[in-house]
Design goal:
21 helices; binds iron/sulfur cluster; alpha/beta; 48% helix
């Protein structure tokens, strides 16, 4: 599979992100808080390594029998009075959801946060159909008002500071306020009062699903705000739009994954709300939707089955890999130019149908391996990124300079004597070009070369001998020569 590429340039967008103070403040907060919170939450689980291995096996078993699991799920939903729809791609998924809304005579649709609906651009499609669509997750609501994309899987408005949120509300809300929005509590109250009437007036509620349980036909929806519970119970019709890979065989399996999800995501034992729904309102129920639909979206997922990228389907969208990635936590999500950002986004974007991988995206990683280390389902993201890089090289995607550089590197790496001489020469040259600063010499620039690097940092000059020279001297000493 060869990644398709669009014109979005990761390097250029990353450069712009480095110059946004509000984004940099938010990312500094993320770096400071999230790794510690996750580590503390996982420290409460003495059996974490075993649990992680079990979670990986559960996801692999579900994906290995995907067809059977989904059919079992469908039969349970149907038995409970709901309907399951199968969508091959984004266009078909949007058409199905649009059809359900039309049949329900809907004019106003509310949504809770769902990355799959972002992936298929559902809002645009429904709005073209003349429907009013309102996001009800606070972060999604804010970025909808601003016409932006999410910049984080769980915190879609992470890129914004409080001042930007206040300005957005003051610009978009018609309700006259007694005074300016001073703090987060003011803004929360403002959003809540705006959204209350929206919940009560909606005809259709659309949610995603964190998991689907095959044995019970349950869609499992995990949130911290409770907005999804209102979106799925108040309107007459509830539509779940989710990826086919979200299925797990049993409730026991779900328990294992839930123990890891919130701990990996936000450093909590559980999210505030974990709701299992499995059909429309039954006789005697006090509330709930009259109609219940699940739209299962493929959109490139089944093409991963049986390929080295299949482990991507294990992902439970916890965002731990984003929160620990030195690249994501420096440039934020918008630089990636794809719906899914961070390491999982860089690995997933080239695989999704209808999503051209932005140029340079598989290169948006230091391959340090932290993403794989913190992933609760052990997805080998660095290996998958290496695979996409190889594919991109074979398809001659990327700059000519990069390809020439790699050709030179290949020659050097294939001839150890040439490698040793070149390194020794380079080390001496860099030392010559460096300037003394404190205890050691540092390079401050190389003319037109390495402008991106030297715009933000310098480089310690190589000191003394190269490793190979030292090794050779040691061997000679050992032999008494
Ligand atoms: S790849 Fe792993 S760490 Fe990243 S979002 Fe998915 S499950 Fe979480």
């Amino acid at each position: 599979m060869i990644p398709r590429v669009d014109s979005h340039d990761f390097a250029a967008q990353a450069g712009a992100a480095l110059r946004r103070p509000a984004l940099q403040r938010s990312l500094a907060g993320l770096r400071a808080a999230m790794p510690g919170l996750r580590a503390a939450a996982l420290a409460e689980l003495p059996d974490y390594p075993q649990l992680r291995a079990r979670a990986r096996d559960i996801r692999d078993a579900a994906i290995g029998s995907l067809g059977a699991q989904l059919l079992a799920f469908e039969s349970q939903v149907t038995a409970a009075g709901g309907s399951v729809h199968w969508a091959r791609d984004a266009e078909e998924a949007c058409r199905i959801v649009g059809g359900i809304c039309a049949e329900a005579g809907a004019r106003h649709v509310i949504k809770s946060k769902s990355m799959v609906t972002e992936e298929i651009a559902l809002n645009d499609s429904l709005q073209r159909q003349g429907l009013r669509v309102t996001e009800t997750d606070l972060g999604e609501y804010i970025i909808q008002l601003r016409g932006e994309r999410p910049s984080h899987i769980l915190a879609p408005a992470l890129h914004l500071g409080l001042a930007e949120v206040a300005a957005t509300f003051e610009h978009h809300h018609r309700r006259a306020r007694a005074g300016p929005l001073r703090d987060a509590q003011d803004m929360l109250a403002e959003a809540r009062s705006e959204l209350r009437s929206v919940f009560l007036g909606a005809d259709v509620g659309i949610t995603g699903a964190n998991f689907l349980v095959a044995e019970t036909g349950s869609a499992v929806i995990v949130t911290n705000e409770g907005n999804a519970d209102l979106a799925m119970t108040l309107p007459a019709t509830h539509i779940v739009v989710t990826g086919i890979e979200k299925v797990v065989p049993t409730l026991d399996d779900l328990g294992v994954l839930l123990r890891l999800l919130a701990r990996s995501a936000i450093g909590e034992q559980l999210s505030a709300y974990t709701t299992l729904v499995q059909g429309p309102r039954q006789d005697g129920d006090a509330s709930g939707p009259r109609a219940f639909h699940v739209v299962l979206v493929d959109n490139g997922r089944s093409a991963l089955l049986g390929t080295p990228q299949q482990p991507l389907l294990r992902c439970i969208r916890c965002s731990a890999c984003l929160n620990h990635c030195p690249v994501y936590t420096t440039v934020g999500g918008h630089a990636y130019g794809s719906v899914y950002s961070g390491p999982i986004g860089a690995a997933l974007a080239p695989a999704l149908a209808g999503t051209a991988a932005p140029a340079g995206l598989p290169g948006a990683s230091t391959l340090c391996g932290r993403c794989e280390e913190v992933c609760p389902v052990a997805i080998p993201i660095p290996d998958i990124l290496r695979h996409w890089r190889t594919q991109a090289r074979s398809a001659r995607i990327g700059s000519a300079w990069e390809r020439r550089g790699l050709r030179v590197w290949r020659q050097l790496a294939a001839h150890p004597w040439m490698y040793g001489w070149t390194l020794a020469l380079l080390a001496r040259l860099l030392r010559l070009l460096s300037v003394p600063t404190g205890p050691r010499r540092r390079l401050r620039g190389l003319g037109p070369l390495g402008r991106g690097w030297f715009a933000w940092r310098d480089l310690p000059a190589p000191d003394g001998e190269t490793f190979q020279e030292r090794w050779r001297r040691r061997r000679l000493r050992e032999r008494g020569e």
